[in-house]
Amino acid sequence: MTTLTRRESLIAGGLLAVGAMVGWKPVSAAAAAPYQVLVFSKTAGFRHDSIPAGIQAIRDLGTANGFTVTASEDSNVFTGSQLAAFKAVVFLSTTGDILNDTQQAAFEAYINGGGGYVGVHAAADTEYGWPYYGQLVGAWFNSHPAIQQVTARVEDHNHPSTAHLGATWVRTDELYNYSTNPRPNVHVLINLDESTYTGGNMGDHPIAWYHAQGSGRSFYTGFGHTIESYSDAAFRKHLLGGIQYAAGVGSAPPVTQIEGEAFTSQSGVQVAGHNGASGGATLGYIDNGDWAGYSQVSTAGKTTFTARISSAGAGGTIRIRSGSATGPILGSVAVPVTGGWETFQTVSTTLTGSGSGALFLTFSGGSGSLFDVDTFSLS
Q1: Do residues 328 and 320 lie in contact, with contact meaning Cβ atoms separated by under 8 Å?
Q2: I want to staple 67 with a disulfide (CB 3.0 to 4.6 A). Which of 62, 146, 250, 301 is the partner?
């Protein structure tokens, strides 16, 4: 199978940290007043033949869900006064350098001032020379294998773009590899199981995510290459949820991403330095019976636990507890052997118990070192 080469003009170090908190004060989609969405599909590189189907799908979604759509490929719409009319701007498989400096400044001000951005598929193959856009989209395109079927894993069902999906989502699409892993700077919603297709090269492979940007909101999905995607009911709901989030009318609770090494109490564990880890370090040297406490993290109202882990050891189990290292168990998740201390995967579980106190993580498994915890979130 042939994999396309990396697109030119990638900017080194273009992604910037956007903060741990992602989310906004939610407004019921049903209660929201009618609003306008701009669908922008200008291309200066490869042009996807699915763009017309995508525009029509978003128009249909707007008719059914209370928003009107303006479709344009005219960059001159990117002025402060014109952008102010829209709750969200969808970059629908845009490619290449499509905005000049003045237009970029207007769009940056629009997002930072509370506007919404939705990036679809080749939106990640756009504006490589503009670092702010790299931060906004989350990660730039690197390469892709041929179109094929994949099993995607849904990490978070608390977002309007994923609430309708099961634990996995089997679909056929063109599956991007990205130049960097966006996970440290975004909240990942869906990742690809690279064992279910050929050509993935990221290991931990996010494919859809969201994050706050200034006072605005950003949602990206790597799906949407094929014409068939836009007639698929599950994908249309996924896209609708992303638009509603970006427009500020779909509910997605704030999520806090915590560095594993940010513990405030512990037994046995230490900070371990690793390339590829968020902040360059993990919660490491974990043996059976060790634990870590996080007095700054409340378990009240939390229903989902997600962690980015690695293991060249025995693997094991994380138990999520409330109040103390021997407090009530809210849930547990198995940690597999990933094949290396710098080979990261994501594990997630729904919490079946309810907590009220500070978060404690306890660890169990076989002999010797078990696994490392890079980052985790409660939502």
Answers
A1: no
A2: 62
Give the Å distances, CA to CA, from 42 to 69, 121, 141, 223.
16, 13, 17, 18
d(CA 349, CA 363): 15
CA angle 96, 53, 36 (to 5 degrees): 80
Structural domain containing residue 365: 255-378
pTM above 0.70, yes or no: no
Q: Residue 303's pLDDT is what?
A: 87
Mean of per-residue pLDDT scores for the chain:
89
Tokens coding 198 = 């050929």
DSSP state of 162: T
Shared domain for 274 and 176, answered yes or no, is no
366 in the same domain as 301: yes
Backbone φ, ψ for residue 367 (5° rounding): -90, 155
**Residue that is last in its domain, among 247, 275, 306:** 247
Share of the chain above pLDDT 90, in %: 72
